[in-house]
Amino acid sequence: LPVTGSAARTVPKERMRAAQLAHRPKDPLCEQSIAVAQTMAGVLGRQEDLTLAAEEEIMKLLEGKWALVTGSSRGVGQQIVKGLAGRKCNVVVHGRQPENTDGTLELLKSSGVQVHRVSGDLSVPEGRQAVIDGVCAGPGHVDILYNNAGVRSEWTPIWEVEAGDWLDILQVNLLAMIALCNAFGPEMKRR
User: Fold this and answer.
1) Which pTM does this prediction carry?
2) CA-to-CA distance for 123 and 172, rounded, in angstroms?
3) Angular region, 140: left φ>0, alpha ψ -120 to 50, beta rest
4) Are 103 and 78 in contact (CB under 8 A)?
5) DSSP the chain
6) Less Cβ around it within 10 Å: N or C end of the chain?
């Protein structure tokens, strides 16, 4: 039975998470990925807090790698590819239509890295396959997959969202991510 009332003990979230992490098996690739992700979060969110040594380490990790950033024709995705290119990471720019990525390609012209463009509507299987095929025809692989593309409905209470809207959201926000992870993940792990 659950304990409630004054006998209930609250465990701070940080301690609970630390205990969970302590009991999971160690995977060097996973540990490195977590470290890179935490560092990238710092780079993209609080660059002034990074030390020069951390920035140099990020540069070493990213230099010459290929990153696919979905939804990088504008907004946050565009800023992500700009930040990666600034750290000497080659980028695959994605938009639903090729012409949607023209502005991003223009921004990256002077970056000194290789840039490849792919297009495809991630809400349909054919569009997801077009993105996969475009990467295979271009750089041939990716080292970093940033599933940035996403859709949302207008803010509505959850019980008022129509089933068709949920399907549209899940096609891009979930199924596209799964398809791209399945396509590129095994090779990323092998490398």
Assistant:
1) 0.71
2) 5
3) left
4) yes
5) ----GGG--PPPHHHHHHHHHHHSPP-HHHHHHHHHHHHHHHHHH-GGGS-HHHHHHHHHHHTT-EEEETTTTSHHHHHHHHHHHHTT-EEEEEESSGGGGHHHHHHHGGG-S-EEEEE--TTSHHHHHHHHHHHHHTTS--SEEE------PPS--GGGS-HHHHHHHHIIIIIIHHHHHHHHHHHHHH-
6) N
Residue 71: what are its φ and ψ, rounded to 5°?
65, 40
Half-sphere exposure of 51 (CA within 13 A, CB side): 3
Q: What pLDDT is recorded for position 189? A: 92
How is residue 60 written in tokens? Answer: 């070493």
Q: What amino acid occupies position 4?
A: T
Tell me how far CA of residue 152 lies from CA of 112, 173, 174, 176, in angstroms. Answer: 35, 9, 12, 14
Paired with 119 in beta bridges are 95
Q: Which residues contact 3 (CB under 8 A, 6 or more apart)?
A: 9
Measured between alpha carbons, how far is 73 from 104 in angstroms, rounded to an integer?
6
Q: Nearest 5 degrees, angle CA 62-CA 105-CA 139?
A: 50
